[in-house]
Amino acid sequence: MNVDGSGTPVTFTLDPGTQVAYRVYALVLTIHSTGMDLGTPADFQNFGAVGAALTNGIRIFTTRGNPAVNVELFPTPVKRLSGFYRYTTWPDSGPQISGQTDGVAAGTDVVRITLSWPTNDPLELRSRSTDKLTVRIADNLTSLALFEAHAIGTQLAVI
């Protein structure tokens, strides 16, 4: 997902369609970047090798209901790495966030952000509905070595 969404936002969507439904337990974001050194709190005020805060940010939201309504996971678009940690929720009340940084080499780090839903209350994306999970990028992220999003869960066949 290291794309240029600065002119036209780029959207990545998990949409169950008509044949399956999904139970999503986690969304794992991985950001790998040269020129990103996460050794001090100030390093989290940028967005990796972009070298500054993003202008428009990254939105992560679910779409539910009829008519379709977007429900944002964060109250504002995430523009800094610290934004992922800033908008956490209380235990057992929705998506939880945890992070991990790995020093790959001097000036090259990886950060993994896991947004998780309780196993007894996962994010349900129903078949034949408007239900979706979306990551929308509205900035130029081509300077990142890697930006990935992986949904972890169960796929259910719909008869």
Structure description:
This protein is mostly beta strands and 159 residues long. It contains one helix and nine strands, in the order ββββαβββββ. Strands 2, 5, 6, 7 and 9 form a five-stranded antiparallel β-sheet that branches. A four-stranded antiparallel β-sheet has the order 1-8-3-4, with no helix packed on it. The chain starts with 9 loop residues before the first strand and ends with a strand.
Mean pLDDT: 83
Helix proportion of residues, in percent?
under 10%
Tell me the span between the first and last alpha carbons: 33 Å
**Which descriptor suits the 3D outline?**
elongated
User: Unreliable runs, pLDDT <50, ≥5 residues?
Assistant: none
| Sequence of secondary-structure elements | EEEEHEEEEE
Overall structural class, as computed from helix and strand content, comes to mainly beta
Radius of gyration: 16 Å
> What is the tally of helical segments?
1
Instruction: Quote the beta fraction.
Output: 35-45%
User: Main sheet, how many strands, which sense, barrel?
Assistant: 5 strands, antiparallel
Please tally the β strands and state the result: 9
Topology:
Layout: E1 10-14, E2 20-34, E3 58-64, E4 69-72, H1 81-86, E5 96-105, E6 108-116, E7 123-125, E8 132-137, E9 146-157
Antiparallel strand pairs: 1-8, 2-6, 2-7, 2-9, 3-4, 3-8, 5-6
